[in-house]
């Protein structure tokens, strides 16, 4: 289950889940595609620079991916999070990774329910923090807000893809960031990500 550019991983799987409508929405950009990965599994196992946490406003832990990250990182993560004084919806804050294989955790608070602009802002804030932090080049996102916070995966994913594509299109961003990994946890969400990748990061 290694991390590869998405089209090398994705296309094999998409044959099993034929897409309904995957007409490309953008021109092909191989340099961009090389930086995007689709990975299925537990985000806390990724040995990369930073993983994103779908946290809540307290930043003190919760259910879902947040609970997994705090469990795996250990109590020093909690201790640091206490000093961060919470986080508002749409915003993000940086912490260490402690016992995680990832160096950093970027905590963001997704919208409760389906609010496009707020979801988009979460991804932008996380990406901007990655940009501002010297040794972050590889980052992974879980499917923010699509669990306990109730954002339908089919509606959230196009927002995510558009936001990430537009961000990565900026030359200063793509110069620094080497890889953005979409970490999909639920098997049923994989096909949704593949369909959207074919539209937002099309290949020849
Ligand atoms: P939110 O409150 O933002 O909806 P959740 O943690 O409930 O956050 O869900 C967000 C997404 O994270 C869901 O797709 C869920 O399946 C996924 N998820 C849960 N545990 C993990 C994990 N260990 N690694 C990656 N993704 C996870």
Outline:
Helix content is 42%, strand content 16%.
Account of the protein in words:
One of its GO terms (molecular function) is ADP-ribosylglutamate hydrolase activity. Residues 23-201 form the Macro domain. Strands 1-6-5-2-4-3 form a six-stranded mixed beta sheet, with helices on both faces. Helices cover 42% and strands 16% of the residues. With 204 residues, it is α/β, with parallel strands linked by helices. The radius of gyration is 16 Å and the shape is globular. It contains eight helices and six strands. The longest helix is centred in the middle third of the chain and has 17 residues, at 116-132. Helix 5 runs parallel beside helix 6. The structure holds adenosine-5'-diphosphate. The site of adenosine-5'-diphosphate has 20 residues, from helix 3.
Key terms for this structure?
42% helix; 8 helices; 204 residues; binds adenosine-5'-diphosphate; alpha/beta
Uncertain runs = none
Strand order, biggest sheet? Answer: 1-6-5-2-4-3
Range of strand content: 15-25%
User: What is the molecular shape?
Assistant: globular
Count of runs of 4 or more consecutive helical residues? 8
Structural class: alpha/beta
Overall helicity:
40-55%
* Major sheet: 6 strands, mixed
> What's the order of the H and E elements?
HHEEHHEEHEHHEH
Oligomer: single chain
